[in-house]
Amino acid sequence: MTEQHSQQPGHQFERGTDGPKVILVGVDGSDSSLRAAAYAGGLARRQHALLAVVYVQPLLAAGAALGVPVAETTDEIAQDLVAQIREATERTRGIFDVRWEFHTFHGDPYGGLAKAADQLKADAVVVGASESAGHRIVGSVAVRLVKAGRWPVTVVP
Q1: Tens digit of each residue's pLDDT (9 = 90 or more) over 66-121
Q2: What is the chain's percent helix, strand, coil content, to nearest 5?
């Protein structure tokens, strides 16, 4: 008996490689996003993939109208996230070596992560579970990424 396998056309996220080349993780400083970064870092290490760490800088026109220095605050968050990643990388050097890049995108979290995943040609996306009650109204970023169906999405609690 002969077994035949037909090749189905690849999905958009398939890059013709054995395993992911780029694993994207969204971070915002929350505990769940930092757990997602640790999980994604482990995946990237085991898969010999690039870890693309993405912070989406919100555009808060209302905050700016009230005199709140929104851009300065979000820049500080991005700088703090990079410092945390560098510190963790130094602490685990030789044990947990992983190639990583930090990227900042602007916009709403879903739109920014989707744009980042497309531009960086992410093979997989990792995000933390929502810690906000507001996601019940608009839908969590994770659910929206899954529904987009453009990348495999892992949600870390």
Answers
A1: 555 555 556 776 677 767 766 766 665 555 678 888 898 988 999 999 999 999 99
A2: 45, 20, 40
- Give the pair of three-digit tokens for residue 151: 């990348």
Structure tokens at 26: 């969204």
The string over 33-44, giving b where at least 16 C-beta atoms fall within 10 Å of a residue's C-beta and e elsewhere, is bbebbebbbebb
Question: Which fold is adopted by the domain 22-156?
Answer: Rossmann fold (3.40.50)
Question: Is the Cα dihedral 12, 129, 27, 154 positive or negative?
Answer: negative
Q: Is 25 helix (H, G, I), strand (E, B) or coil?
A: strand
What is the DSSP secondary structure assignment for residue 36, as one 8-state letter? H
66, 72, 77, 81: CA torsion to nearest 10: 170
Bridge-based pairing state of the strands 50-57 and 22-26: parallel
In the numeric block, the tokens 């989406």 are attached to 56
Contacts of 14 (CB under 8 A, 6+ apart): none
Q: What percent of the chain has pLDDT over 70?
A: 65
> Residue 141 corresponds to which tokens in the numbers above?
């970023």
Would the pLDDT of 8 be above 50?
no
Write down the residue that tokens 């968050």 correspond to: 77
Q: Where are the beta strands (DSSP E) in the chain?
A: 22-26, 50-57, 100-106, 124-128, 153-156
